[in-house]
Design brief:
There is one protein chain. The chain is an all-alpha fold and 119 residues long. It contains four helices and no strands. Helix 1 runs antiparallel to helix 2. The chain starts with a helix and ends with a helix.
Length: 119
């Protein structure tokens, strides 16, 4: 990977990280705000369901933040864009679609076949 590609992916990852952290702060502020005084049990249940869904999204975003930080570390160490399974380069098109990818498409496909029992 040349210097321009490295810088492109570094900027892309940092921007996604910034957006996730900013969004997390806003969501946390909304969740910790005053609870609504809802007299209707259906409204209370809907409100709780929405809070649970929001918390699940926050957890998913937290995992993505960790993956982005790991990708940035691999960039710093010169290991970004290299498949951790076979050592081949990960196609830049795959990295564009999933900048936190750690496997080339062939290794990821093989791992999914094993995981899901596909032949």
């Amino acid at each position: 990977m040349d210097d321009a590609q490295i810088e492109f992916f570094r900027n892309l990852l940092n921007e996604r990280l910034r957006a996730l952290i900013e969004n997390a702060g806003e969501t946390l502020g909304q969740l910790t705000g005053e609870r609504e005084n809802l007299p209707d049990p259906v409204d209370i249940a809907t409100n709780e369901s929405n809070r649970e869904f929001t918390l699940r999204l926050q957890e998913r975003d937290r995992h993505l933040v960790n993956k982005i930080r790991s990708a940035l570390k691999r960039l710093d160490e010169g290991e970004y864009g290299v498949c951790i399974a076979c050592g081949d380069d990960i196609n830049p098109k795959r990295l564009m679609a999933r900048p936190v990818a750690t496997h080339c498409i062939d290794c990821k496909t093989a791992a999914e076949h094993v995981q899901y029992g596909v032949r």
